Amino acid sequence: GIKVMTKTCAVCGKKVVFGNTISHAHNVSRRKFYPNLHKVKVRMDGEVKKVYVCSKCLKKGKVERAF
Q: Is the whole model's pTM more than 0.70, yes or no?
């Protein structure tokens, strides 16, 4: 099955990545890039579950929405 974790897409596994904020004076500090996740009702294995799915997977139709 597919694991459900916060800040992680249930379809593609996209999650938080780390990078740097760089100021004009070139001061460098760490920052996070969060994926664009949506809590969605999805039909998986014949049952309806609420999972986090990124907007790219929703747009591509990789999941079957349950209404």
A: yes
